[in-house]
Amino acid sequence: MSSYAIPICLIMYLFRKDSISICTLVKVLLCLPDVPRAAGNLSSVLPMSNYCRLFAILILMFLSFQSLLTAHATSTFLKSLKLQSNGKKLRILVPDFGTFPNLVQLTIDPRTNESGVSGFCWDVFNAAFKAIDYGVGVEIIPYPYKDGRSYNDLIDKVSLKEYDAAIGDITITANRSLYVDFTLPFTDLGIGTLAQNSKKNIWIFLDPLSADLWTISACFFLFLGFVIWFIEHRTNEEFQGSPTQQIGTTLWFAFSTLVYAHREKLQSNLSRFVITVWVIVVLVLTSSYTATLSSLLTVQQIELNERSIGFQGLSNIGGVVYNNLNLADTKFETLYTPEAYVNALTSGSVDAIVDEILYLKSVLAIYPAADFSLIATASTTNGFGFVFQKGSPMAGEMSIEITKMREEGTLKALEDKWLNRESAVTSKDFSSPSPKILNLYGLRGLFLISGVSMALALLVSTVGLVSKKWNIKNKMKILRCILRRFPEIHADSDVESTV
């Protein structure tokens, strides 16, 4: 092989195209025959030393390995040089929807009249971009909201290479990833539930029952006592005595049925019938009251079935919520702003709001005085990420920096700066909003059955009493008639009465 083979191969390596590999160069070194070298009239062959041949191969292998390690950095560096040489800035599209200002909000510099960005998303992007140190500027392009526009339209703009990147509250989805490259998520994954806290006051034991149910229950207790007294007081000594004793016994008996502690013995079958029906009513009433009160006092995750929930109209989670949380027969309400979230929960038009966790944290930060809690629900979304053109090396570089920021605590510090609220910490240990209280409409059937039984027993007892008095009156008339027909008996009775 000629002594020029090694330099030629090295030059080929340094300036080779991508189609020439290290294997081809090694083959050149090993397989090409040596070239004869003329010296005067003699031809002699000067073979290349095996050591030189091995040394050349090792150099080429080292250079190839070094190239593999630095290929990505080189392409990034070349892209940076290209941007710098062209004087081009990174064109970044920012949604100007403005519903959650602490996440992303466009600002206008009054001196230069240039667009700027503030908020949690921008701070994360800015910190990661500075760490990469591309040496190029950033140009913010507002993307104003118009009827029919959505975040998918913003993705399309980047996909068509009209802009280099997009930042904001943009959810990572599988379909969007087909057209653009996302960084790793810089927010919490999944969706959460925002709900009102349970009431905490000294009268919380009254909350399980509505006012009309409390009133009708008290009236039925009094009516029960009256019915039992009316039936029993003529024959049962326990319901006799002075008026004060009778009233006390009657009230005690009526309210002792609430805990099944009545000790007075009932003699009439009508009384036993009325008490049997009433005990069933009391059993259902106390069981329902206990269950509702336990829901008020027990920390638990909110149940969304058979409830009305709200979610953000511009968000991409509508189908996710419906498909993954099994919300059959649930009424949905579309909301757009943090103010609408608070008004809907406060007015009771929705029982809870389901949205991505960062949105709910934003609401709690904007309204720190609101008595709401954030409850983790399900990891059904991928969080927010920054958008870049397909194949852009910046997506990978930014992902690395986001990972570093998360490990170093920088990401948490930025989140605390924009989204922290002392009275609201994301947890599964928040109490759920008050469940639906019991009302008379839901239990009207029980009271109807009990009322009919009491009225029927009272009617039968009254008829029996009237019939008994009527029979006694008839018997007295008959006895008087007999005495009038036999005056001697009447006279004897008068004599005896005189004596």
Describe the structure concisely.
With about 500 residues, the chain is α/β, with parallel strands linked by helices.
Strand order of the largest sheet: 6-3-7-14-8
- Which class do the helix and strand fractions yield? alpha/beta
Distance between the termini: 170 Å
Number of strands: 14
Membrane topology: Multi-pass membrane protein
GO molecular function: ligand-gated monoatomic ion channel activity
Domain Ionotropic glutamate receptor C-terminal: 91-421
Family: Belongs to the glutamate-gated ion channel (TC 1.A.10.1) family.
What does this protein look like?
The protein is of the alpha/beta class and 499 residues long. Helices cover 51% and strands 13% of the residues. It is built from 15 helices and 14 strands. It has a five-stranded mixed beta sheet with strand order 6-3-7-14-8, with helices on one face. The protein is rod-shaped and about 155 Å long. The protein starts with a helix and ends with a helix. The relative contact order is 0.12.
Question: What is the fold's blueprint, element by element?
Answer:
Blueprint (H helix, E strand, L loop, with lengths): L4 H10 L7 H10 L5 E3 L2 E3 L5 H37 L3 E7 L8 E4 L6 E4 L1 H13 L5 E7 L6 H9 L5 E2 L13 E3 L8 E6 L14 H22 L10 H14 L12 H29 L10 E5 L5 H7 L6 E5 L2 H10 L4 E5 H10 L5 E7 L8 E3 L3 H16 L1 H10 L20 H46 L1 H12 L1
Helix pairs in contact: 1-2, 2-3, 4-12, 6-7, 6-8, 6-14, 8-14
List keywords for this structure.
alpha/beta, five-stranded mixed β-sheet, rod-shaped
